[in-house]
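WP5 quarterly update. Target: Osmotically inducible protein C. Source organism: Methylocucumis oryzae. Length: 139 aa.
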Amino acid sequence: MQATVKWIDGVMFVGESGSGHAVVMDGPADHGGRNMGIRPMEMILLGVGGCSSFDVVHILKKGRHDITDCVAQVTAERVDAVPSVFSKIHLHFVVSGRNLAASAVERAVNLSAEKYCSATIMLSKTVEITHDFEIIEVK
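Structure tokens (predicted):
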């Protein structure tokens, strides 16, 4: 796996993944940015949410559960020092579907957290990561 990050101007960069997808990263004005892109630390949270969501959806679909939507709401706290690393990350999954058993959703979330999600497992070595979920019944 590889990626390239190219400096554009000020504190704006364009990141391109090895698979050919690009994203603009920029900082706030007080750090020399123009607020025209996502912050690099926000990218980490999106990666955690995406990786975990991929697992949860895959596990539920593989179990033939009637899932119609999955939203990971990711919140984080950072230390008040430099470097301002994450101290806590919480993932709240909102899983929608028909007749979803709480035990199945809980199992999928736990398997992602403990066995499959490379991002959360890697970060959990230094960050407190927690998960919870809610189920929305769809008619």
